[in-house]
Specification:
alpha/beta; TIM Barrel; Urease, subunit C, domain 1; 36% helix; 14 helices; globular; 452 residues; metal ion binding
C-alpha cells in the first residue's frame, strides 16, 4: 500500500485541497480530500491524472528530424512518407525495442501514462513473416513493460497501396497482411500483452487507402469489442482520391458504411465539411488529433471549434513522435485554432473558462473513450496514473487550480513535471525516468547504425 498527500489535486468533481490518495495493487483505493497529511504520507504539491497519447507510431521516434531537408520537388506528406519507408525497412526487432522503450520513457516524463500504439511494422525487412508473426508486437509490449507505461495495442491491418485495392508500394512490404494472416497477428498480439498490467487490445484498419470495404467488414469482428482506430481525411489528396474511388469523402464514406460509435476513433479527420463534423460528433466516435505531427507534415488544421460546438469528443496523440509532450500537443491544438480564426482562447468553451483546463479535460475523457478505459482520473477503482507538477517552476509561481494548468501548457516549456506514478509505481522522480540513461544509450546505438 502507498499513501500520497497532495496540497491540491484535480479530482473528477474538480479541484480539491489536502487530498490523500491510497494506492493498492496498482489502483487507487481511496481518495480523501480535506485531510491533513498523516505520518508516512508522501507529500507533493499539485497532482493531475495522467493523460494518454491515443495515437503513436513508435518506430518513427527514431527518424525524428531526419526529414527536414527539402528535395527538388514540393515537399509534402507524400515525400515525407518515402523517408519513413526507407527508415522502417532498415529496422530490426532490437531496434524497435530500443526506439519504443526510449519513446515510452519520454512519454512518461512528459505526462503521458498510457499509449495507444497504432502498430503496423509487422514483418521482416524483406516482407516475410517472422517465425512468430507477433514478433514486433511482442517488442512493443517489452518496451511498455520496461518503461511501465500502460499499453493499448492497436495492430494495424494494411493490405493495399491506395483506394480500390491497388497493389501495395514496395516500401510497405513490412506492413502487409491478408485477412487470414491478420487474424493470426491479432491472436499473437493478444498473447504478447497478456502479462502486462493495464494493457488491452484493439484494432486499426490503417485507412480507406489500405483496406477494401470487404476487408474492413471482415476484420472488425477481430477487435472482439475493443476499440477501432482508422486514419481518415488527413490529406487533401486522400480526400480527392477517395472521391474518385467512391464518390464520397473519407469521413462521409465511413459515416455511411460503418457503424461508427463510441468504440471508434477517427485519426486526424483534418479535412471535413460542416455536415461531416456535425454527423461525426453525433456518433460518439472520438477525433484523434495529433497537432504537432499534423503541423510537421503540413496536413492542415482540424475544425476543432466547430467539432466541440457540436459536442464532439477528442483526444490527443503524438503520432510520428517528432516531439513528445502532452502540453506541447494541447498548446499546438489551441494555437492552430488561433491562427485559423485570428482569435484567442478559441477552445476555452466560454467566457471566464480556462483554455488549458478545457483542453485537459477533453483530452483525458476522449482518450479514455478511444482506448476503452472506463475508469480514469484520481478516483477509486482507476489505475493509479498520477502526475505531479513542480510548483517551484517560474511559470507556476503564484498560481493555483486552473491557472496551474494554463501555466504548464502555455508558458512553461520543459521542467514542470516532477513525479509520475504509472500503475501505482513511481517511475519518474525529479522529472527523470529511472530508465532514462539506459534507454538513451540503447536508442542512440540503434539510431547511429540506422542513420549511417
Amino acid at each position: 500500500m502507498t499513501r500520497l498527500h497532495f496540497a491540491s489535486a484535480l479530482l473528477p468533481s474538480g479541484w480539491a485541497n489536502d487530498v490523500q490518495v491510497v494506492i493498492t495493487a496498482g489502483a487507487i483505493a481511496e481518495v480523501t480530500p480535506g485531510v491533513a497529511p498523516a505520518a508516512g504520507d508522501e507529500r507533493h504539491g499539485v497532482a493531475l491524472p495522467g493523460l494518454a497519447s491515443l495515437h503513436s507510431h513508435a518506430f518513427q521516434r527514431g527518424m525524428a528530424g531526419l526529414a527536414e531537408l527539402r528535395g527538388d520537388s514540393t515537399d509534402t506528406f507524400w515525400t515525407w512518407r518515402e523517408t519513413m519507408y526507407r527508415f522502417a525497412l532498415a529496422m530490426t526487432p532490437d531496434d524497435v525495442t530500443a526506439v519504443a522503450t526510449l519513446l515510452y520513457v519520454e512519454m512518461l516524463e512528459q505526462g503521458f501514462t498510457r499509449v495507444g500504439e497504432f502498430h503496423y511494422l509487422h514483418h521482416d525487412r524483406d516482407g516475410s513473416h517472422y517465425a512468430d508473426i507477433g514478433e514486433m508486437a511482442a517488442r512493443i509490449a517489452q518496451a511498455a513493460e520496461a518503461s511501465s507505461i500502460a499499453l493499448t495495442l492497436l495492430p494495424s491491418f494494411y493490405a493495399h497501396g491506395s483506394f480500390g485495392g491497388a497493389a501495395p508500394h514496395d516500401g510497405q512490404r513490412r506492413f502487409i497482411c491478408s485477412v487470414d494472416q491478420f487474424a493470426e497477428l491479432m491472436s499473437a498480439s493478444r498473447k504478447a500483452i497478456a502479462s502486462l498490467s493495464g494493457a488491452n487490445l484493439g484494432i486499426a484498419p490503417h485507412s480507406l487507402r489500405a483496406v477494401t470495404p470487404d476487408e474492413l467488414a471482415a476484420i472488425i469482428p477481430l477487435a472482439d469489442g475493443g476499440p477501432v482506430h482508422i486514419h481518415a481525411a488527413e490529406q487533401v489528396k486522400e480526400v480527392e482520391d477517395c472521391l474518385t474511388w467512391s464518390g464520397r469523402r473519407p469521413v462521409q464514406w465511413l459515416l455511411e458504411h460503418v457503424p461508427l460509435d463510441r468504440r471508434w476513433c477517427l485519426i486526424h479527420a483534418t479535412h471535413t465539411t460542416d455536415e461531416e463534423v456535425a454527423a461525426f460528433a453525433k456518433t460518439g466516435a472520438v477525433a484523434g488529433l495529433c497537432p504537432i505531427t499534423e503541423a510537421s507534415l503540413g496536413d492542415g488544421i482540424f475544425p476543432a471549434r466547430e467539432f466541440l460546438a457540436a459536442e464532439g469528443g477528442f483526444g490527443i496523440g503524438t503520432d510520428s513522435n517528432v516531439l513528445v509532450g502532452a502540453a506541447d500537443e494541447l498548446r499546438q491544438l489551441e494555437y492552430g485554432q488561433r491562427l485559423k480564426h485570428r482569435q484567442r482562447n478559441v477552445l476555452s468553451g466560454g467566457a471566464g473558462r480556462s483554455t488549458g483546463r478545457t483542453l485537459f479535460d477533453h483530452a483525458l475523457a476522449g482518450a479514455a473513450r478511444a482506448l476503452a478505459q472506463p475508469t480514469v482520473g484520481l478516483m477509486p477503482g482507476a489505475r493509479a496514473d498520477i502526475v505531479t507538477l513542480d510548483i517551484s517552476h517560474p511559470s507556476l509561481a503564484g498560481r493555483s487550480r486552473d491557472a496551474v494548468i494554463d501555466g504548464w501548457i502555455f508558458a512553461a516549456g520543459s521542467g514542470v513535471i516532477d513525479c509520475v506514478w504509472a500503475g501505482g509505481e513511481k517511475v519518474v522522480e525529479g522529472g527523470r525516468h529511472r530508465l532514462r540513461q539506459a534507454a538513451r544509450e540503447r536508442f542512440n546505438a540503434s539510431v547511429r547504425r540506422l542513420v549511417a
